[in-house]
Amino acid sequence: MAKAISQVMMSDTQPNQTLERVDCVVIGAGVIGLAVARQLALAGREVILLEGADCIGSGTSSRNSEVVHAGIYYPKGSLKALLCVQCRDLLYAYCADHGVPHRRCGKLLVATDESQRGKLGEIEAKAQANGVMDLAWMSAADVAALEPELTTVGALHSPSSGILDTHGLMLAYQGELEDHGGMVAFNSPVVGGKVTDDGIVIETGGPEPFRLLANLVVNSGGLFAQAIARSIEGIPPASIPPIYLAKGNYFSLARRAPFSRLIYPVPEPGGLGVHLTLDLAGQARFGPDVEWIERVNYDVDIRRADKFYGAIRRYWPGLPDDSLQPGYAGIQPKLVPAGVADADFVIQGPRDHGVPGLLNLYGIESPGITASLAIAARSEAVLLQRESEPALT
Questions:
Q1: Least-confidence region, from 149-163, 259-273, 312-326
Q2: At what angle do helices 79-97 and 166-179 cross, to 10 degrees?
Q3: What total of structural domains would you count in the chain?
Q4: What is the extent of the structural domain holding 64?
Q5: Domain with 307 in it: what CATH number?
Q6: Sign of the torsion angle spanned by Cα atoms 176, 178, 183, 184
Q7: Has this prediction a pTM greater than 0.90?
Q8: CA 220 to CA 49: how far, in whole Å?
Q9: What contacts 3, CB < 8 A, 6 or more positions away?
Q10: Is residue 332 exposed (0-12), middle (13-18) or buried (19+ Cβ within 10 Å)?
Q11: Is residue 4 part of a domain?
């Protein structure tokens, strides 16, 4: 365990059961858990990051589009809008400073018929309300000059959108965490806990179970954040929101795509439509669609490809037959069911649930990666009940 951990005896658990006293425990080594653990370590706290798997970012953080979002779609004043716009350029700078592969390739939001022009106008207005002032209208001819194989009646160009290597970003966060005295405990799933007068007890499972008594606990369990909260005795059940699982399936292209920018259609309920993104090697992938599920399941049903072909050919009619192959799937932890407008991030601290030293992060979906540094700074401020956030670094 981290240095300066002391041994304490907890008579209210099991007789002679020894717990290890720690300062900060962060649960979940996805991109958000890593960012928060890094933030706390940089502030001089001693941090242990608990991860149930044997590696970082094996869940939602490794199953996404790896897009740096500009902050276009989110409701004005929401945490999603504020933290995405606040963090976007900082994230590009962080990637450049820490050797994380990335590219500010830009994005085209395309209208495929005249009826969608008004929707693009609404998107532009929402973006401007969020402080995204660099969107530019493009005619069909302008689009064709940039991306000849696209068929549109016009588009919005977002030059601030881009792509990054999410795993590289998580490795950078982990490296800074460890450089400042923090550690990651792998194969250590949280199986229970208890709020006490002396701190929060956290129990782990795995091959070598242990128990910790923490001054501060951050629940960044992603898809399992609600289950983790329910397993800790003393967290008010009414403070734990429901969770709904929105699965997004991706298909990859069996050949190189003739595009150099991200291509997004007009958004659909529950998601941003079947869009085209690129990895840093230029390989195209399409998705996600939206499939509401009852349990975590990452299988990609090849039969869903039929709908992908139809959606993609609205903006790329030249998509060849039999060129899509199953890629991967990701799952977003939604706080509202299908048919309801997306909920905002929930960064829930002691003032919200009444448990000193506890922070719960719920519904951290897109644009969580883009906003990760800002989410971490906001999390530290909420956890410590500060009126202002620390400067982003």
A1: 259-273
A2: 80
A3: 2
A4: 19-103+160-240+341-393
A5: 3.30.9.10
A6: positive
A7: yes
A8: 10
A9: 46, 181
A10: buried
A11: no
